[in-house]
Amino acid sequence: MNETKDVATPEKKAVAEAKDQDRAIRPAVDIFEDDTGLTLHADMPGVSKDRLNLQIDNDSLSIDGEIDIPTPAGMEAVYVDVRYSRYQRSFSLSRELDTDNIEAILHDGLLILRIPKRAEHKPRKIEIRTA
Amino acid sequence: MFGNLGNFDTGMLDEFRRMQRDLDQLFGATPFPSSIRAAARGTYPPINIGTNPDQVDVYLFAAGVNPERLDISIQQNLLTIAGERKLITEEGANYYRKERYDGEFRRVVTLPDDVDPDKVEATYSDGILHVRIQRRESAKPRQIEIK
After folding, report:
1. pLDDT tens figures, B62-87
2. Residue B51 within any structural domain of the chain
3. Range of the domain at B112
4. How far is A95 from chain B (nearest CA, A)?
5. What tens digit of pLDDT does each residue of A32-44 get?
6. B21: Cα separation from own chain's centroid
7. What is the CATH number of the domain that holds B77?
8. Does the ipTM surpass 0.95?
9. How many domains, in total, are found in chain B?
């Protein structure tokens, strides 16, 4: 009995690990809009500035970050809530957003993105003239 | 009078059981019993725990938390981490998504019996609280000489 199990385990593990490489955590986000633009807050604990990759491609914004935590030699995981070491999430942007002027701040694992609206798309108050 | 009440079982409940089975399969159910203090999956903040013969490392994934508002205490082998995350919310803004956890949290971790509660250190960096607890010397594996 034990023998069969021992033979099967490593193979299963290898498959699981290969699968895990493509899998990523979907970071929790808050997104809100005001008159001047959109703001996105994303939780990415464990990601440092040099391991964060933000990309805009054809109106699509993609957020990619790798978790890097110091682990002592010979550590064995005994409890794991966070199973993957990568965060990935993308959003499609609309045309009125000024993708050239996106600002990003990363502090304590919290990513803040500010996506301004193009000047011509900011809401204008329409005057009502009395006849 | 009420027809066959047994039908309730095969409807909704079966659906839930099936869902639970699927979830267990997805996240890997273990045949081992879980700790009585174990929190449900998805509890904020997520934690990872690792051990080696020298120490136990607890990692708490809590982005954007003021470390001064974290309360870490250890009693024997019971580690408690409590804190609060206050989200910066914009008044009058139009929210599309609000997925991030807001408010107080508390997680309790049962550590191995051989940890030394006097040798604990905690650091907070990049949104991860790392608590390192040393294990007692006597618990480390020793080489036994054959005479």
Report:
1. 999 999 999 999 998 899 999 999 88
2. yes
3. 39-87+101-142
4. 18
5. 999 889 999 999 9
6. 22
7. 2.60.40.790
8. no
9. 1
